[in-house]
Specification:
Blueprint: H1 15-23, E1 30-31, H2 43-54, H3 67-81, E2 89-91, H4 93-105, E3 111-116, H5 120-128, E4 132-137, H6 146-152, E5 157-163, H7 175-187, E6 191-195, E7 217-222, E8 235-238, H8 241-252, H9 260-269, H10 275-292, E9 306-307, H11 316-325, E10 328-329, E11 331-332, E12 343-346, H12 351-367
Parallel strand pairs: 1-10, 3-4, 3-5, 5-6, 6-7
Antiparallel strand pairs: 2-8, 7-8, 9-12, 11-12
Helix pairs in contact: 2-9, 3-9, 4-5, 4-8, 10-12
Length: about 375
């Protein structure tokens, strides 16, 4: 008899982490795999963090997080979207918030719906907790629609996950499209969890949020993608008081609190001007899309820093193997989907790396 819990058989080791480990062993790879910004944390945030550390702000905070950051998160949504957040708690990144939200709400057998392709944690965390992860096929346009959601709902459905802009496709939902999806959840008495980590990295259209549309809705956001605080592990959640209270209780017994000094710095990150960063990534989006669209079937991303092309011949896993053999690190689409036809590129890389990657991928497409 082994010591490993049975629940661990319901999840796989992340395919992304395997690619990261491979990258560490390769000499000068064309790395288009990493889902983190290629810019650093803003200087003002670094200075605040250093000042807080030197000033002795190094102890536990309240499990909820510091009041200053909770209020700043609510004010950010009020300023940007016209709707303040209520019952805000600070989490250990959006991943921590997602784990707490699902832990607080998923019973064995509960169905959790989300778009396929999906962020890897949605499926594996739902399964880990004994729920049923239900990916809703959104190929070829990658749009989650009310019709597609309605067709997937059963008597066991409990949660609808939203993610816009999306990882791994970069596809976005506008305010009307989000409202229509939330309306389905409201009519069918589902809980909505809206993962809005990429909401500030939007290249076309107007900013959109699910916040304020429904009382049974949890908003998750954080600082890894816009503020580049990937290693600082700070995010926030807001939603129904009873669920947030349960999430706070769970945090007491798990993460305890987000890093103290990083919470102080995050207050300033919420006030940062994202204009230059968004313009830079819009340009990178145009470079990668323009460079691939003639050789690959590809949907133009409207946000985040990912693009999700179809592999030549529809063999995503095989194409990724060939790409890696040729020094190009990309992620197989099967990591994010029940299909294995596509692959994910992160264009959060220097322009020179993108150009090298485009040339290599097009060459591989031609060689097929």
């Amino acid at each position: 008899m082994g010591f490993t819990a049975e629940r661990m058989s319901r999840i796989d080791s992340s395919g992304i982490r395997k690619i990261f480990a491979l990258a560490a062993t390769m000499k000068d790879p064309i790395n288009l795999s990493i889902g983190q910004p290629d810019y650093d944390v803003d200087e003002v945030c670094k200075e605040v963090a250093i000042e807080q550390i030197r000033g002795g702000f190094n102890s536990y905070t309240q499990t909820w997080g510091i009041e200053e950051l909770r209020e700043a998160a609510s004010e950010y949504y009020a300023r940007k979207f016209g709707t303040p957040l209520h019952n805000v708690m600070v989490t250990g990144g959006v991943s921590g918030g997602l784990f707490l939200a699902l832990m607080a709400t998923v019973n064995p057998g509960d169905e959790v719906l989300f778009a396929d392709p999906y962020f890897v944690m949605y499926k594996h965390l739902a399964n880990l907790l004994g729920g049923r992860a239900i990916g809703i096929d959104t190929y070829p346009d990658f749009k989650l629609t009310p019709e597609r959601v309605e067709a997937a709902i059963t008597e066991r459905t409990k949660i609808l996950m939203l993610n816009s802009p999306s990882n791994p496709t970069g596809v976005t939902l506008n305010q009307e499209e989000i409202a229509a999806l939330v309306e389905v959840a409201k009519r069918r008495h589902l809980l909505v969890i809206s993962d809005e980590i990429y909401e500030s990295l939007l290249y076309d259209g107007s900013p959109a949020t699910a916040a304020g549309l429904y009382e049974n809705l949890i908003v998750l956001n954080g600082f890894s993608k816009n503020a580049a605080m990937t290693g600082w592990r700070v995010g926030f959640a807001a939603g129904p008081e009873d669920i947030i209270q349960h999430m706070n209780t769970l945090q007491q017994y798990t993460f305890v609190c987000a890093p103290s000094f990083a919470q102080k710095a995050a207050v300033h990150a919420l006030k940062a001007d994202m204009t230059a960063k968004v313009a830079s990534y819009r340009r990178k989006r145009d470079i990668i899309y323009g460079g691939l669209k003639d050789k690959f079937k590809v949907t133009k991303p409207g946000g985040a820093f990912y693009i999700f092309p179809e592999a030549p011949g529809g063999d995503g896993d095989g194409f990724v193997r060939k790409a890696i053999e040729n020094g190009v690190l990309i992620i197989p689409g099967s990591v994010f989907s029940e299909r294995a036809t596509h692959f994910r590129i992160s264009f959060a890389s220097p322009d020179a790396v993108l150009e090298r990657g485009i040339e290599a991928l097009n060459r591989l497409a031609d060689a097929r």
